[in-house]
Automatic annotation (TrEMBL):
It holds the Pfam family NifU. GO terms for molecular function: iron ion binding; iron-sulfur cluster binding. This is Fe/S biogenesis protein NfuA. InterPro entries: FSCA_dom_sf (IPR034904), NIF_FeS_clus_asmbl_NifU_C (IPR001075). Belongs to the NifU family. Residues 16-78 form the NIF system FeS cluster assembly NifU C-terminal domain. One of its GO terms (biological process) is iron-sulfur cluster assembly. It comes from Kaistella antarctica.
Amino acid sequence: MNKEIKHEETVTKVLDALESIRPFLKKDGGDIELIDVQGQTVLVKLHGNCNGCPMSFSTMKLGVETTVKQFAPEILEVLAVE
């Protein structure tokens, strides 16, 4: 399979994963934005109340990363960028 097509499919799966958790983040006054997918790493930016929240690390690892890996098993980690 073409590497470009594979990357596009991964990005689509990651976006679907983020959409599935967005309502939970918005409920707490936050949001999430996909910055980039680099190989097996996803870069996201937290917005609103999620940005700098003391719980944001566990939100990222337990919520976001777990969900992204369910949608796109090829992803190994999700990192928050500023």
